[in-house]
């Protein structure tokens, strides 16, 4: 299974190490990513014009890939603004205050609700659905917006997505690559997902409380008002806006709006909608709610106000995503984007820069249970560095099959471990641009959220890998 590594592979790996080091040191990585794109382009095209053009083209590629996420966040923010300014949001969330009374209850409550919701239609739509509803309650009882983002992130993009027991997109990809039935990979992943989830969420909570006690907690807010993204008002609601909807209408709308999203959930089951299709259904529903509430609230000015709210939402979305696009552009080069932008300049046996590095890693280590578990965890994490979480899990499955065959057992466990590592790293808990939905909804810096997640996720991966060694 030999893979020929070129200078491009080593340069890409060097920039990944540099980017991770800068993240740990709490420095911005945008410029380094641009330099990385330029350097890779120069190696690939051997022309100055090709490498310079590659920077812009990679930005366009990343924007296209991220557009669905940008739009859903923007639309949900726009809808949330009109709900806040009319007071519907307060009516909607008031019943939850009975159950969420302390920061601790807010952290675990938001996390568990996020996990359950994400299991049914993946985390990004779940973040958009529940963020606007639960974030005001959490902040009101003293949980920082960054703490809420950590909870939503670890429980949704971590626990729920790495198991993916309802939609089964992740286990199907890894199981097919490993030549196993989906059920065996799902069964093997249960203890690993539980251990990874428990260790990471408990560690994150303990670190948050410790830093708050020591006065070293950083809020990481980008909205500028200390209330999170969807709550960050540029100007307070006017009396006219708040008086535009009667108390009775607010109560009915507070019931109707969650009901409409519940219908979306049912439709996702009945119509078998997943991923982007599920996001589109939620986004379309949010647009209709935005239009309906705005027309009721502003009446004669409704037509103009609909556009105003959409502009506010889009402004917020692109403001948050602006610094993320260059980083996404670099990490996309680790997969299919490199060939699309620079042509077939990698060796013929190449399956993409990131996957090649993972295969090379598997080739140079001895085959036994302990090393197998460590290798699958590291390989999964490396393939997750492109920020998708899903692009490399087929590779994890194929490497797990090789290790399992050589060892004589444990193929399903190794496959599940590679899946968990890849999705926790790349699915949205460590790579800054991948965890943007939770950061955007909560109005915090994605870089600060990535730093806050780093220790809990690495500790969780270490403990989970040790557990896998005993299960192989």
UniProtKB/TrEMBL annotation:
The chain crosses the membrane at residues 6-24, 31-60, 66-84, 105-121, 127-143, 150-168, 188-208, 252-271, 277-297, 309-333, 370-390, 430-447, 454-471. This is Transporter. It comes from the Bacteria. The keyword Metal-binding does not apply. Keywords: Membrane, Transmembrane, Transmembrane helix. The keyword Glycosyltransferase does not apply. It comes from Paenibacillus rhizolycopersici.
